[in-house]
Amino acid sequence: MAFKRRKAAMEERHEFCSRARRLDHRCGDRLHASFGQCADKWATSWAASVQGPYPVGNPSAQPVQKFAFPTPEAGARDQTFRSSYCRISGQADAAALLQCARHQTGDIRRRLCRVALGSATLVAGTNRPVTFGGKPSITVEPGKDVWSDAVALPFVKDAKALAGRKLAVSFHVAGETGPMTWHAKALQTSYVTAPGAGSRGEANDESAFPYSTASWFLS
Predict the structure, then answer these.
(1) What does the buried/exposed string (b/e) look like for 144-157 if buried means 16 or more CB atoms within 10 Å of the residue's CB?
(2) What is the pTM of this model?
(3) Phi, psi torsion values for 114, nearest 5 degrees
């Protein structure tokens, strides 16, 4: 039984990573149209298996989550997540994000997603808006994945200056998410606002993000 569960998790992770590697084929034409000079070649920088719904999983060194998410069934409520993901290359000048709602039971509305250089605190001048089909918000249906538009990263110029730095992705969920899709054992610290705090992704400082998590939430 344990073996079957492990095998299923490995297959699910492989499927997710395979979809991520098909970014060229699924989005190439649209990315070229939006950012002609920076869409020459796309490569997957970061991917993680989807798990859940929260709190189903095996997190490690996890802080107490009940303050950020009082009721797992309700999930997040009008909150902004800020997660540090991939280390970026000085040869990359654009990014695209895959939004996943694999384990959701209801539609998830995301508003004002942003990407920047940093972690809880962002590097000034790097906080860039993310759009979906030219719009600042997207509703993701249960079980669906949605690609963002390409985001130009004009601050990526000096590979040496960027050594060891990461991209931080901030996204706001409007209303209640319900059961959340997550990656339990991220082994990295991400941040979240208090319930009802609203959209805070434009803030460069960490004061709006009082709670931390050792997981990545993809809801």
Answers:
(1) ebbbbbbbbbebbe
(2) 0.76
(3) -140, 155
Count the domains in the chain: 1
Nearest to 110 by CA among 82, 83, 79: 79
Cα separation, 148 vs 87, in Å, equals 19
User: Which sign does the torsion angle of CA 64, 68, 74, 75 carry?
Assistant: negative
Per-residue pLDDT 10s for the chain (219 aa) are 343 445 555 565 555 455 544 544 444 444 444 444 444 677 777 777 888 889 999 999 999 999 999 999 999 999 999 998 766 655 666 677 766 555 555 666 667 889 999 999 999 999 999 998 898 888 887 777 788 888 888 887 766 667 667 889 999 999 998 888 889 999 889 999 999 999 999 999 999 999 999 999 876
Q: Which domain holds residue 137?
A: 2-217
CB atoms within 10 A of CB 23: 16
